Amino acid sequence: MQDTEPASPAPAPRRTQAERRAETRKALLNAARDLIVDKGYAETATPEIVKAADVTRGALYHHFADKADLMRALVRRESEAVAADIDAGTNTGQTPLDAFMAGASAYFTAMSVPGRAKIMLLEGPTVLGLAEMAEIDRDTGGATLLEGLRHAASHGALKDIPLEPLADLLSSAFDRAALAIANGEDRTAYETATRKLLAGILKD
Question: Is position 150 within any domain?
Answer without folding.
Answer: yes
